[in-house]
């Protein structure tokens, strides 16, 4: 690990002022260290020489002022460092959240949500020791030894030479031990992230685990991972304690060498008493900041390891080609045809394509049923239209404009999405319905709920539309959650509606009622609905059948070539 990771300053520019203040106070502390040593030497030499009480009292008062000033400067430096830590954590959390949103669901699907959660909370909180302890000590470790060495050289060049020769031992030992500490800390953090992700999976799937009698087995797995994390933590602490021992031993031996040579020359009469005292008082101060920096290095490694993972995510290139590009021209899905030309899709880390050479035209107002066995590529086709995945190759164009040139936000503003298992947030029912239109009035929200068939059960809730739904809306039935998702789609009033088997997990009666509401939503809109329901298939204008990622049903012919202005998207 580098002494100071420049990425912490690059991604958290607001902390630079606090860090500059910390370094400035470090300079003040350096000057006070020299003043303190000089006053101590003067007091001790004066006491031996029998200096008058008035002079002795004046020096003692000056020493007390210096000690108080040093304590105040150290406190101020630590306070500024803590403020820098708070600013850095806040900025990194914000950047991490924005980056995860920009990378999208396709990237997040390959990672553990619990790991990201642990990274943005416990991981970044561990940066406090780095800023509050390690960085101030690092500043002092750069300033104090140099200042002490210069002051000692002015008083006694031989002692200064001994200090100069032994000072490098401290950082050399610190680096050697630090290499091992870095490996241990990275392993400790990986185990903590694994533990967090696995625990989240167990909590979310607890009902399934209980039904299949696997709860105790998973508890044993958590116990195993916890024990591994405990062992890794203890190994890291063991290294930290041994490091402190090594640094203390090196500093003690170096100080003893200076004390021996000073004592011998003092006895031989080659050095006066005041100079000897000044050298002996200053010598430990030369090694102390280096020892403290080495000790605080180990306390800060967990936070730096977590920050390094945050930087990896922040530096991950976004796959959405449209990000940052203005729309080539205006588009309107009420009138424009959506054309897929030889589109292929392969997800990262997979050796086979989810979609292969898909070519289809989606005309305004069409009702298209998408069928196929599990894994045929139905949801992948919707993922392309939702812009949560981009084609590996091929072209998608809208009215002659490449979809890659349309900002995802503008595109999604003209579509509605009803998945199999809609996510409800722990806010009011009204806020959940108004997810796509936060400024919608209460009348508009209630009208959308009525069209989705949700108004009746919502009014029976304890606070009606102001009822706060719990996590994931689990206090509602599956059918009720689906109706709220439909109400979202009605409220958005988008010309393109994508439905991924909205009735898949419902009983026949609820499915029939919900499908009737879906029928109302489909009126005067372009609809693509993934379904296995024969009635839905029979009512569709066209049926798009997929098998192993390929279109197996013959569709109306597409234009021979992609319209001008469209661009192939390639990875």
Structure explained in plain terms:
With 571 residues, the chain is of the alpha/beta class. The chain has two domains: 309 residues, ABC transporter type 1, transmembrane domain (ABC transporter transmembrane region fold); 160 residues, Rossmann fold (3-Layer(aba) Sandwich). The protein contains 19 helices and ten strands. Strands 6-7-8-3-9-10 form a six-stranded mixed β-sheet, sandwiched between helices. The protein has a four-stranded antiparallel β-sheet with strand order 2-1-4-5, with no helix packed on it. It is elongated, with a radius of gyration of 34 Å. The chain starts with 5 loop residues before the first helix and ends in a 20-residue tail after the last strand. The C terminus is likely disordered.
Q: How would the blueprint of this fold be written?
A:
Blueprint: H1 6-10, H2 16-49, H3 53-103, H4 105-108, H5 113-125, H6 128-155, H7 157-166, H8 169-204, H9 206-211, H10 215-267, H11 273-314, E1 338-345, E2 355-362, E3 367-371, H12 378-386, E4 393-398, E5 401-402, H13 408-412, E6 415-418, H14 429-433, H15 442-451, H16 455-459, H17 478-492, E7 496-500, H18 508-522, E8 526-530, H19 534-539, E9 542-547, E10 550-551
Parallel strand pairs: 3-8, 3-9, 6-7, 7-8
Antiparallel strand pairs: 1-2, 1-4, 4-5, 9-10
Give the gist of this structure.
This protein has 571 residues and is α/β, with parallel strands linked by helices. 62% of the residues lie in helices and 9% in strands.
């Amino acid at each position: 690990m580098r002494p100071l990771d420049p990425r912490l300053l690059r991604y958290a520019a607001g902390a630079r002022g606090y860090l500059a203040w910390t370094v400035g106070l470090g300079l003040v502390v350096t000057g006070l260290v020299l003043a303190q040593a000089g006053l101590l030497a003067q007091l001790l030499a004066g006491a031996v020489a029998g200096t008058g009480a008035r002079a002795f009292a004046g020096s003692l008062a000056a020493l007390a002022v210096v000690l108080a000033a040093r304590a105040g400067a150290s406190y101020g430096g630590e306070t500024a460092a803590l403020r820098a830590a708070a600013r850095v954590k806040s900025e990194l959390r914000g950047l991490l959240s924005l980056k995860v949103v920009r990378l999208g669901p396709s990237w997040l699907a390959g990672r553990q949500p619990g790991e990201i959660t642990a990274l943005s909370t416990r991981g970044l909180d561990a940066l406090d020791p780095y800023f509050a302890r390690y960085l101030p000590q690092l500043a002092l470790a750069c300033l104090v030894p140099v200042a002490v060495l210069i002051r000692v050289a002015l008083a006694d060049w031989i002692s200064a030479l001994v200090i100069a020769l032994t000072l490098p031992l401290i950082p050399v030992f610190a680096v050697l031990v630090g290499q091992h500490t870095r490996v241990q800390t990275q392993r400790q953090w990986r185990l903590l992230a694994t533990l967090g992700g696995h625990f989240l999976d167990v909590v979310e799937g607890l009902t399934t685990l209980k039904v299949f009698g696997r709860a105790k087995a998973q508890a044993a797995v958590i116990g195993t991972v916890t024990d591994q994390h405990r062992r890794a933590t203890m190994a890291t602490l063991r290294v930290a304690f041994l490091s402190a021992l090594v640094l203390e031993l090196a500093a003690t031996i170096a100080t003893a060498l200076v004390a021996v040579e000073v004592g011998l020359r003092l006895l031989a009469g080659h050095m006066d008493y005041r100079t000897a005292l000044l050298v002996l008082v200053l010598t430990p101060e030369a090694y102390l900041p280096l020892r403290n920096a080495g000790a605080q290095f180990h306390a800060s490694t967990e936070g730096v390891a977590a920050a390094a993972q945050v930087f990896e995510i922040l530096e991950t290139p976004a796959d959405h080609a449209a990000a940052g590009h203005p729309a080539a021209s205006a588009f309107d899905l009420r009138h424009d045809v959506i054309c897929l030309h030889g589109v292929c899709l392969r997800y990262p880390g997979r050796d086979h394509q989810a979609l292969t050479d898909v070519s289809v035209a989606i005309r305004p107002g069409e009702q298209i049923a998408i069928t196929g066995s599990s894994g045929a590529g139905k949801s992948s086709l919707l993922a392309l239209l939702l812009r949560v995945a981009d084609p590996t190759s091929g072209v998608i164009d809208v009215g002659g404009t490449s979809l890659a040139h349309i900002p995802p936000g503008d595109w999604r503003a003209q579509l509605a999405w009803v998945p199999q298992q809609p996510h409800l947030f722990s806010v009011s029912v009204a806020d959940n319905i108004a997810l796509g239109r936060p400024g919608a009035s209460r009348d508009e929200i209630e009208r959308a709920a009525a069209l989705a068939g949700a108004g009746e059960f919502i009014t029976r809730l304890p606070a009606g539309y102001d009822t706060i739904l719990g996590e994931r809306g689990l206090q509602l039935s599956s059918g009720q959650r689906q109706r709220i998702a439909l109400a979202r789609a009605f409220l958005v009033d988008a010309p393109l509606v994508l439905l991924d088997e909205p009735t898949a997990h419902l009983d026949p009666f609820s499915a029939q009622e919900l499908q009737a509401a879906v029928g109302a939503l489909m009126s005067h809109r372009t609809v693509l609905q993934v379904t296995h329901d024969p009635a839905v298939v029979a009512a569709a204008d066209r049926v798009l059948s997929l098998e192993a990622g390929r279109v197996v049903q013959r569709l109306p012919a597409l234009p021979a070539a992609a319209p001008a202005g469209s661009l192939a998207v390639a990875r």
